[in-house]
Amino acid sequence: MASVLFLAPADLGETVLATGALAHVLGEGDQLTILTGADAAPLFRAAPGLKAKYTIEGAGDVGPFIELAWARRGRRFDVALDLRGSAASIVIPAKRRIVRAQPKALRHFAEDLSELVGAERTLDPVIWLDQRARAEAAAIAPDAAPVLLLAPGGNAEAKRWPHERFAAVARRLVTGALTGARIVVLSAAPRDAEIAARIVASLDADGVEASGAGLDLLGAAALAEGATLCIGNDNALTHIAAAMGAATLTLFGPTDERVRAPRGPRARTLRGTRFEEAALDPSTAMDGIGIDAVEAAALELLHAGGLR
């Protein structure tokens, strides 16, 4: 039985992608300690062997590092999987420290981490659900009706497709291929709540029922497990939906899908302009993604899954 420390990446989407590497490092019966951002903390609530969890409130918050180092004084972790890249982590003792170096070639984040932990194949994310998450999801989607998830948030405005376009696509889908579907607008962090509210209000004004979920990341994962389709920006929720097996369409602009694309059996990405062009003016990178293109890509995903 080993003691394992996981220092999660600062980015929420990368944290989801890193769960595969964590699952690979964890052995049966190991004791796990997590150090992660507050928004990502619920994602690990049901992780196997979880003994302790420390949350970081921001880039300059070194308190949790010091608290953990004090709690472990005289005892070293057997393994520390350090994907946060914080200098403060040096105060936490470990016999073996696995640290991601700056990548030398352009490839997916999951490929980098898989090589880092010695996996023979690229590791997909692993989400551990609990009964609380399943119960919260069941309360939102209690029957067998199709569920359309929207994930319109993002940690930067340039990464967000306009909320009115999300509403327009959802309106088309639930009056067409997904007639009768329940629309749920997800938020990964408090900053997304206003965007979600705008979409819900826009749809309600046209007589199309929609709701904001108010779920944490693990509750969102449980809801995604049974969802028919998820459409969203490059954010943690699309990574989670793809990992849970939902048909997931992720819209990319100023970030590179070759490095950050969600991984899952039914995941697809869409962008309006080439990444190299989008990088020249990130503020307009999402403008080139049209409503028709998103609807068409969504329908292709649905049809590939057997929906006619």
What can you see in these coordinates?
With 308 residues, the protein is an alpha/beta fold. It has helices spanning 12-25, 63-71, 109-116, 131-140, 163-174, 193-205, 217-225, 236-243, 257-260, 275-280, 291-304, and strands at residues 3-7, 31-37, 50-56, 77-82, 94-99, 147-151, 182-185, 210-212, 229-233, 247-252, 267-271. The protein has a six-stranded parallel β-sheet with strand order 8-7-6-9-10-11, with helices on both faces. Strands 3-2-1-4-5 form a five-stranded parallel β-sheet, with helices on both faces. Helix 6 (193-205) links the parallel strand 7 (182-185) and strand 8 (210-212). It is globular. The mean pLDDT is 93.
pLDDT < 50 stretches: none
Walk across the major sheet and give the strand order: 8-7-6-9-10-11
Structural class: alpha/beta
**How large a portion of the residues is in β-strands, by DSSP E?**
15-25%
| Shape call | globular
Distance between the termini: 50 Å
Helix tally equals 11
- Average pLDDT works out at 93
Helix content: 25-40%
- This entry's quaternary arrangement is single chain
- Helices and strands, in order, run as EHEEHEEHHEHEHEHEHEHEHH
Can you count the beta strands? 11
What is the makeup of the main sheet?
Answer: 6 strands, parallel
Query: What is the radius of gyration?
Result: 20 Å
